[in-house]
Structures are given as C-alpha cells and as structure tokens.
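Progress against Task 2.4 (sequence-to-structure conversion) is shown through the following example record, which the project officer requested during the mid-term review.
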Amino acid sequence: MEVETAPTTKGRPREFCVDKALVDALHIFWAKGYDGASMTDLTEAMGITKPSLYAAFGNKEALFHKALDLYEAEKLEYTRAALDQPTARKVAEYYLRGALDTHCGATDPKGCMGLLGTLACSPEADSIKADVVRRRASSHRALVERFERAKAEGDLPAQIDPEGLTSHMLAILQGITVQASAGASRAELERLVDTSLALWPGK
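Structure tokens generated for the chain above:
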C-alpha cells in the first residue's frame, strides 16, 4: 500500500493512502463521469486537498486515466476470463453475465465507467474519450479473434461474420450498462441476456 505525504500549510505533513484515495476517485468518476466530477467532488471524496491531489496523481485527467486503469483491472476481469471459455456461446454468456454482476451491483455505481464517463464529454476532454475508445477497440479486437477461432473450429456457423457478431454482442453489453444506469432492474436485464443467448448462432 502506497502512502503519500501531503503538504499542509501548518504543522507536520499529512499522510494519506494513495491506493484508497484512487478507489474513492474511481467511484466519483464512475458515478458522475469525467466532466461531471468536479475537483471539489474528488478532493472531498478522497479526503485530500487540491495540492495533494496534484502532487500524488498529476492533474484531473491523469487521475481519471489511473482510475480507469484500476477499474479495468478490478472490475473488468470478467472480460478477459470470458475469452478462455470453451465455446463462443460460453464466451458471450460469461461476458454478458459478468457485465450484469459488475454494472448492476448493490454497492458500486450502476453502468460502465468508461462508457458513461464519456457519453457527454466536452471538447476539452477529447483525450479522455480517445483513451476510452482505444481501450474499447482493444477489447473488440480480442473478441473478434476469439470468434474467428470459434468459426475455424466449427463452433460457429460458416455464414457468421465474427466482426458483426462482436459488434452485436457489444451493443447488447452497452445496452445493459446504459439501462442499468437509467434504473432498469437486474431481473429486466437478466431477461435481456437470456433472450440474447437464446438467439445465439452457435452451440
């Protein structure tokens, strides 16, 4: 656990846990998006001053990138584990049910931090949107490659386009995250996943 010594105006420097502060920042960005999260929101949640934030993390943009790294490492592990499932249908099921667990939980904010955090980004936040798009493209490529392998193995019908199938599945995923943030119940979203899997073209 990393501990940062933060400067104060008087007396001894105040120490704070950098890891905990980053978790607190993650939840603010997740709940409010990049533009919606003010520096006051962030410093109050993290329990530090603006100078301490700058000293430990750089600026707000750098803090968001670090929070997004943590979000992907801890909250999106299911997206990587899904690729190891034995069939394309199992990949889709693991992916979509993992999204339900992550984006419809009882303690974390609803929806996807990356998607919802950039839906209404201002022009000043173009680098934030570009980073999220880059990360999303990497996930897209990994799924396309997995579905191409499934097609080569006969696990998917010959007429199925792996690129189109990936786009379809990610559209369902994005629908889950947006509807979750808009207040859809877990039961409603489970029906969406069940229906999508019932229409899956593979075994």
